[in-house]
Write a structure and sequence with these properties.
This protein is of the alpha/beta class. The protein is built from 13 helices and 15 strands. Bound molecules: zinc ion (ZN).
Length: 418
Amino acid sequence: MTPVAPADGPPHTSTSFHEMWADLKPIGRDPDSGGYRRYAWTRADQDCRAWFKAQAESRGLTYELDRNGNQWAWQGDPLAGDAVVTGSHLDSVPLGGAFDGPLGVVSSFAALDELRHREVEFAKPLAITNFGDEEGARFGLACVGSRLAAGQLTAAKAHELRDADGVSLPRAMEAAGYDPSAIGPDPERLARIGAFVELHVEQGRALDVTGDPVGIASAIWPHGRWRFDFHGEANHAGTTRLDDRRDPMLTYAETVVAARREARLAGALATFAKVSVEPNGVNAIPSLVRGWLDSRAADQDTLDRVIAGIEQAARENAARSGIDLRITRESFTPVVEFEHALRDELAKLLREEHGDIPVLGTGAGHDAGILSASVPTAMLFVRNPTGISHSPAEYAAEDDCVAGVIALADVLEGLACT
Ligand SMILES: [Zn+2]
């Protein structure tokens, strides 16, 4: 990670942001790459959670851990209703960056500090959240905490989730000292929320192109994950004639190329980034290659077309090479249009201090997208000059982070203090 440099901006805001950032920085950090391994219900995750709880308590906020393991820090009465909620997540992808998730949580606490500095009068309760297991790095399903709360993942399905070592989600929660017995929909909690605003580092370069430190989200592209199982025949790499092989690696490779072509032609995205091989021996033709496809597009029709094209190419190539192919859709999230009224209100609240803020779509999934089916939801993005994300190179300048905090504080003040 590139170190965050001291910045201009209101000194108290810079200081509170900087101190929290420095506190979180070492947790789950790989010393060689500078990337993070903050997987759900691991030691690093628990350390992040302890950090969150300490931040809540040091500000005199009411701390709650909900039935699904999401953390909440409340100013005002948690049961009063019509609450303004902000926050994000603290977990990471394998060797992820420092900003995806933590920027939103740290900015939420810093924005509250800024509002207290302004001595505003709160008319509504305000809560800061850390949603558990947003990235899905351990159990293969993203946004588990918010999906459970919103009823988009049933407790039964959550009980079936397993990590690479075969540990189930409930056992992992138990091992971390949390009671998994009540996981499931949490409509009463969601009913307390009047508006949810998630600040997040941009995962693209749109703001760098427009020259703006902060943007507002319009929509999250529909996206999903598909597993391709290519079954062939294990055999000796040194004695099996090419014509006699049923090599699933070949069909897998052709499918990777097809995915790239279909995505390019459609203006969409398709990525094979995770693969497992059996028996995974250097001199053995594989018996099974299992590849995971992640694909996203601006609209459902385009995404359907891309997936159909990739499936067709994979099936044709498999048939030609004697490969048995099975395709399983493991997860899918339809397009999320953020509520227009709240989006417009954010733009209005920010116009005076920040001018006209760009409104942009994103291909990345977020807890805000999950919650948008249940509560009015909006997102703010902070400029990422390289656009790189899910990598140790992920970065936002501290000036922009502080601009994000101020924008978030302005939004929260407008929503919670009128
Ligand atoms: Zn994120």
